[in-house]
Amino acid sequence: MSCGIALAAALMLSDPNVAMAAAVPPPPADAPVSVAGEPLFADIVARSGRLKALVDGWNGVRPAADVFAAFRTEATALAELDMQGHLILKERGTDGDLKCILRGISEDIPLKIEAAASAATAREQAEALSDLSYLLNDNVEVITAPPQPEV
Q1: Is the pTM here over 0.85, yes or no?
Q2: Contacting residues for 3 by C-beta, under 8 A, at least 6 apart
Q3: 38 pLDDT band (50/70/90 cuts)?
């Protein structure tokens, strides 16, 4: 069994939203369907919005270490959910763009968090948090955008 399949199986068993999303049958090939109403993707949207509001509230200045550590934990969990969304869409064979974007966001969230954590100047800190805010906003927008037909 490949590591990817084992990881997917372990994560599916840990979150009921993932199992419910994986159980949704694929749509007809010619009909683009929004996944925004599915529990896993709705959870991603809610978490992303909540985390973006936190980042925006910091006004470019990283908060106290304990607050940032809690944020890092939540954002890392969000990145894992984004990867689950990617894997589910890949398994369904649907929505190539969203599938790829979710994978990219999953990979970028830890990088942006690390940039914010290691920023040496106030300007670097503000830029890192701004980038993180945009990434979290993108996470909401790509899921809630109306589906487009394949080209």
Answers
A1: no
A2: none
A3: very high
